[in-house]
Amino acid sequence: MNKFFERRYVITGIFLVIIFTVLARLYYIQIVDDKYEIYANSNVRRTTILYPARGPILDRNGKILVQNEPIYDVMVNPKDVNRPFDTLLLCKMIGIDKEGFYKRFIKAQKQSPAKPFIFEKQLSVQLYAALQEKLFEFPGFSVVPRTIRTYPDSIAAQFLGFIGEVTDRDIKRSNGYYRLGDYIGVTGVEKAYETVLRGQRGVQVQMVDSKGVPKGSFANGALDTVPRSGERLTSSLDIELQRLGEKLMKNKLGSIVAIEPSSGEILCYVSSPTYDPNLMVGRQRGNNLAKMYNNPYKPFFIRPIQAQYPPGSSFKPLSALIALQEGIISPNEIFYCTGHYKAGNRYVPCNKGEAHGNVNMARAVAESCNGYFSMVFQRIVDRYGVKNTEANFKAWRNNVMKFGLGARLDLDMPAESRGNVPTPLYYDNIYHNGGWRSSTIVSLAIGQGELLATPLQLANLECIIANRGFFYKPHLIKAIGTENVIKKEYTEKNYVGIDSGYFEPVINGMQQVVENGTARRSKIPGIIMCGKTGTAQNPHGEDHSVFVAFAPRDNPKIAIAVVVENSGEGAHWAAPIASFIVEKYLTGKVTAREAGYTVDYFANANRLPDLALYAKDLAKERRRDSIRAAKIDSVRKFKTDSIKKAKADSIKKAKQETAGNNKAGSIISILTGRRAR
Amino acid sequence: MMSNQQQRSFFFNVDWLTVLLYLVLCAIGWFNIRAAVYAPGHSSLIDTSTNYGKQFIFICASLVVAIVILLLESRFIAALAPAFYVIVLLLLILVLIIGRNVGGNQAWINMGGGFRLQPSEFAKLATCLLLARYLSGTNIRVTEPKSFMMAAGIIGLPMLLILRQPDMGSTLVFCSLIFVLYREGLSPYFLVIAGLFIALFVMALLYNPLYIILTLVAITALVVYWGRRNRKLITTMVIGLGICIAFIFSVKFIYSKVLKQHQTERINILLGITTDLRGEGYNVNQSKIAIGSGKLWGKGYLHGTQTQYSFVPAPSTDFIFCTIGEEWGFVGSITVIGLFMFLILRVIYIAERQRSPFTRVYAYGVASVLFFHVVINIGMTIGIVPVIGIPLPFISYGGSSLLNFTILLFVLIKLDSNRMGII
């Protein structure tokens, strides 16, 4: 003891105050502040996304249309690139140059130094095998297995579509489901059934040390999820039929759509020119894509649902059926064809000016008498007097639309066109308030004028005739998943409002078309096919060859529409091609036609239009389309406006003027817009 | 009487509570070193290729040394203090010539066989002993300038040599001996002034010097006004103000000229002047993450991710507390700190029960050095003091450190066991 004894308490006090400061700080960082736990987890956790295999697609008989093949993506985690290594060796192994290497690396760092970045995509199994042995030499680099699509038969490209990397918009729209570098269906069935095909991603959360070396699963795998493969799709296509169809359409522009009338299942879906879907995967995809876009024949244009043609004579059976249902004419009423039908002050030429003489309905269909159908059409439209032209035309239009024309058929594919059945307002707009008569629009009777239909709509039309009055919604995917789920809407009959009894005279006529009419050279031995040839007018060149048919006559198994562009009459090209498809489907083989034409003759024929001319036409067509679109737009706009307004004439006239101005304005803007591009 | 006691047992009067605390801390150290370098598959507990295997040998060796110390004659210890001090000084000079440079500090002498000696560790012991010897002399009063200068010299000499290495951490440890001087009669103003200067140093870095000076002037003016009749007070305050202002201006100079760049950076990071989570700030940040992520109960023994997956630097030596904080949580941290405080307060208690001033002064030296190490080491891992590389006593991996603290403590236990006698 000495006199400074009490200082022990001062020293003890100072020690305690300091140590309590330390404890308070410890309390704060260990108990109060939660951020360190989060940081610790982000230090040690590495989340790997496990990609599920995309669902395969089969044909109707279970044959594979699309399957998956393993490929490997090289990933880099910039944070883990913590020591120098032989960059040149890596570049060589994955086939890039040094500049590309640095460019990617900087991009990866910009994205996030802690997140894996896809450094090089889609290494083949061979490249991967070589790389894997050396991978430990490249810190921060890893390889993630993925799958890509392969198409063993290289067919049905427009049906299958392709997948591509997601765009920023896709990511935004998916509410964060997709991440940069993910794949998504871009077109075709891949797009339409994306959510079914993509499956469910899994994640694997691993622990890594400060050098990025994996140290086992995090929290014993509590955060891990197993990827679930995408569902299998069974398509309605018949691989054999599809292959034959694509062979027949080689070097031609056009399409084939064949439907099973008793189910609405599409059996054959050819869009020509086509391409090998295998070109849309792998590392050359970008180059191939560019080539395809630059191809003037537009292989990406899905002709069965996007191309719209005037149906031409193939429309006539429909005209006849409506007339019968409306009681306008009886099947046996005789009409005398002079070779020229006079409607008002217009002449409709018929049969190249040669008189058909007396025709009844069956003969009119069989010989495609323009006069007969013009007469029938005029009778319908003028039925309650000229003053009621608009109402009558509307009624006719409604009847036509019940057959699936002028509106989308809701095919289970993206980007379907509507086709067109003109509205009374459309004519009002052109001929100004009632300035049109049945004679003005008589060309509709023979499928010309403003009528437009897609090949799919034409084929569906044949289904309706084959079924005698109803159709199932056409579709390309028959069943989803291993349990073969079928969408309910595909099992419902859609009636078109024509009594089944009215079909026989029309079908008689159609049978005659093939038996001894325009398509007699396409007669299939032993099979009664009912069809109708058509010639769709093409203002830029030779007409489009159209043929629609179904077979056999009783209990039909197949309905078909074939369009061969720039090939003249339906009987010459479309009909024989259709007959081969029908024969193949019904008998399993193809024989030569009576005239000696074989499949190979058609397959080898080149009907591609002259490139220079075609390109010019295309440009014109585009302009015309845009004008039409603008017209339709302005008409639609006008229509909605006018409903609200009173019917007072003065107001209506004022409206029309403004609508006219709008129309002009929008056309100009579209035209200049195109030029500017 | 003394000889009788010693004949009864070598361990007569040994303070077993202190020994127990020592053993517990060593055991905690060993287990946490094992956790820090743990790799699954390393099943052998005593594998001399690993840190924990080596530490096991160090602990055994330390226990042998402890027993040897208990067997020594107490009076030798005081008698040999000057010789020991001189030997250590020579070693400190030697290390500057032939020492091995590890981590920027030329602090180790190679002993062969993979073992290295760190003289600066033993300098603490030697200084405490010589200081005790000097201050316990007759007619020595710290309050007298001459004695104070002598005591300051005993402390300052090894500091200068260690600063040459340059081992800032070990140098600063000697500053803790101010508590010893205080206990022996040094004016409390020294503590106040030391505290004031630390505060001024920090403030001068954080704030504009002008504001600090204005504040100081205002305070001085108030005090002067209040005691305006007291001439002496006025003089002291004005001189004090002058010194403070001079110090504030010299801070920038000290900062840029005296301290090394990494030291200034560490201080900057501590004070939040700069953040550099990839460079100098990386260690502290990762250390805080490890400790902070332990939460209340910790992640469990051998389940610390941050320490085991080498996010934390030097996890078995200077940053060993991260393993404790991460795997044992707040509860474990409090326990370890509690054990240390228990030991330190026990040492102070031992100090105050001595008849011999030598033992008392020495005990306060032990308590101060231990306390400084604990606070600076743990404070560094949780980011309240700058990163200074000094070990956590008994727990950090390292033979020299463990041996030094063992000797430091067991010399005290030996001296204490003889508290009834006169040296």
Automatic annotation (TrEMBL), chain A:
Penicillin-binding protein transpeptidase domain: residues covered: 254-581
Keywords, alphabetical: Carboxypeptidase, Cell inner membrane, Cell membrane, Cell shape, Cell wall biogenesis/degradation, Hydrolase, Membrane, Peptidoglycan synthesis, Protease, Transmembrane, Transmembrane helix
Domain called Penicillin-binding protein dimerisation: residue spans: 51-213
Family annotation (Pfam families): PBP_dimer (PF03717), Transpeptidase (PF00905)
Coiled-coil ranges (or none): none
UniProt GO BP: cell wall organization; peptidoglycan biosynthetic process; proteolysis; regulation of cell shape
Entry keyword annotation includes Transmembrane helix: yes
Residue ranges crossing the lipid bilayer per the database entry: 9-28
Compartment(s): Cell membrane; Membrane
Entry GO terms, CC: plasma membrane
InterPro entries linked: Beta-lactam/transpept, Beta-lactam/transpept-like, PBP_dimer, PBP_dimer_sf, PCN-bd_Tpept, Penicillin-binding_protein_2
UniProt topology in membrane: Single-pass membrane protein
A Gene Ontology molecular function term of the record: penicillin binding
Name of the featured protein: Penicillin-binding protein 2
From TrEMBL, chain B:
Keywords, comma-separated and alphabetical: Cell membrane, Cell shape, Cell wall biogenesis/degradation, Glycosyltransferase, Membrane, Peptidoglycan synthesis, Transferase, Transmembrane, Transmembrane helix
Membrane topology: Multi-pass membrane protein
InterPro entries: Cell_cycle_FtsW-rel_CS, FtsW/RodA, RodA/MrdB
Transmembrane segments annotated in the record for this chain: 12-33, 53-72, 79-98, 147-164, 185-204, 210-227, 234-255, 328-349, 361-388, 394-413
GO molecular-function terms, A-Z: glycosyltransferase activity; lipid-linked peptidoglycan transporter activity
Membrane listed as a keyword: yes
GO cellular component: cell division site; plasma membrane
Gene Ontology process terms (BP): cell division; cell wall organization; peptidoglycan biosynthetic process; regulation of cell shape
Pfam families the UniProt entry points to: FTSW_RODA_SPOVE
Subcellular location: Membrane
PANTHER family: CELL CYCLE PROTEIN (PTHR30474), PEPTIDOGLYCAN GLYCOSYLTRANSFERASE MRDB (PTHR30474:SF1)
Protein's name in the database: Cell wall polymerase
Organism: Mucilaginibacter oryzae
